[in-house]
Amino acid sequence: MYKTWLFNNKKKERKDMIKYGRKGTPRMVIYQQNQEEVLKRIEDESRAKPGAPGMFKHYQVAVKRVMTELDEDELEKAKETAEEWLNNSPPPEVQAQVARKKGLAYMEHFLKEM
Questions:
Q1: At 3, is the secondary structure helix, strand, or coil?
Q2: I need a surface site. Which of 9, 54, 74, 109 has the fewest CB within 10 A?
Q3: What span, in angstroms and rounded, lies between the C-alpha atoms of 24 and 21?
């Protein structure tokens, strides 16, 4: 009885809600390189404005359609670029975009943990 209670009520290790890194994927590279086209497609097909809550359910479909329209050479180049970003780092423009988008949340999380 005590063993069961102790097992069920043990302190669980808390995981960070923020992931400080992300892996570069060909999908991410294609989105970064064709961001305006993806956002325009979402707006044209679903009438959802970029950044609106309704936009996100159309995002995956739009990126997938852009990916299917690319030929094999462009897909292979995106894979190579993703591998390069993973090994080195993304270009400064992409880093700046991520910093604008998530920088404040990273700083707040870091301050709370200190």
A1: helix
A2: 9
A3: 10
Nearest to 58 by CA among 48, 68, 71, 70: 48
Distances from the Cα of 49 to the Cαs of 30, 31, 38, 63, 90, in angstroms?
A: 20, 17, 12, 16, 27
Helix axes 26-33, 72-87, angle to 10 degrees: 100
pLDDT profile of the chain (114 residues), mean per 10: 78 67 82 87 85 84 89 92 88 88 86 80
Instruction: Give the whole-angstrom CA distance, residue 51 versus residue 60.
Output: 14
Q: Check if the beta carbon of residue 82 is closer than 8 Å to that of residue 31.
A: no
18 in helix, strand or coil?
coil
